[in-house]
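hey so i finally got around to running both of the ones u sent me last week. sorry it took forever, my laptop kept dying halfway thru and i had to restart like 3 times lol. anyway pasting them below in the order u listed, first the sequence line then the structure token line for each. didnt double check formatting much so if smth looks off just lmk and ill redo it

first one:
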Amino acid sequence: MPTWEEWAFNETPLAVKLSPSLRACGIIDCPKLRALPDDLHRATNLSQLVLRQTYELGEINHLTLTYGLEVTNGRGLKKISNIPTLRYLHLDNCPNLECVENLGKLQHLMLVCSKKTKQLPTWLRGLIEQQRNNTASTHSRSLRKFEMQCNLQLLKSCLEGNENWDTIKQIPSVRVLTYSGQRYMRYTKDPYNYDAKIPSN
């Protein structure tokens, strides 16, 4: 549906569950879709949402996803927020994303950066800080695993002692690798284990 711009549930009574049997939804190659419907949070059995080539979609929020959200080539995406039951988030080439917040049960974050990306996204530090505050209040950690594919420059910045290490080391399990997988850094917090394979020059 290359010209689909608006998705709405018209005149559905608020007491009615939407699509009660829907567990997984994929929206692919809908480049003009501007927004998800406000009432999508009423699809309470929706477990997984996959969005690919939805270039105009600016925000994803207020959903009841019980497992995963995957966004690929979301160049218009700026905000992901208020998905309190989300456990897995996969982001591939979302260069304009500015805010990721209020994902209280997020356990696994997978980030695929564009080849031009030279810095960790600014929202990542804020997300980790939120997770740390949640841990302090609930005594249970949610974000346990972080994976990232990126260029060699960004990989090097995540190595022990380098500029992004203080951010990375707060996550219990981390794997950062180049697109080929030949250069990588692996880290676990407890028990401590650190392994890196990068060029020496």
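and the second one:
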Amino acid sequence: MEDLTRHWNCLSLSEQEGDDVCFKKDRCSKEYIIAAQFFTKHALNMEAVARTFKLLWKAENRSTVSKNGSHRALFMFDKKEDVDCILSSEPWSFDKYLVVLERYKRQTPLEDLKFDKASFWVQVHNIPIGYRNKFVFEDICEAIGQVDRTTSVYDSKGGSYIRGLGRLDSK
């Protein structure tokens, strides 16, 4: 035991070793990752989170879920298609609280993720028939936040309203 303690005390990094470490690209994991921010004040039960989303997402080859901070989690998948399907099916919630998802790129430090974009279903009632179109829907959503016009989904079938899915940006 004393021998191990003596060796341990000799281990240190100095200015001579430097603080720059280069990572080789072939060492990077091959999974596709979704980072999730849970907008709740309650503590997360990761077993319940994993069980719930496994049933909802029906991803064939999900590998792991890991807690990363008090209200963040990483979901790792073997297939890019699973990640694409999950992100295109937003918005998501857990225990009635919003969950904002981001495709995680391994080069980005987790602390740099902003979680400032979310998809929401929006319904606007009492719109005159001549104005029930995608452009008016997007203009109305601009009042809430910036709309990603490439991902908005629009529907005006039936009723006196327009509805759609817009990805809103808090900027």
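quick thing i noticed on the 2nd:
Helices lie at 2-10, 46-57, 80-88, 134-142.
anyway thats it, ttyl
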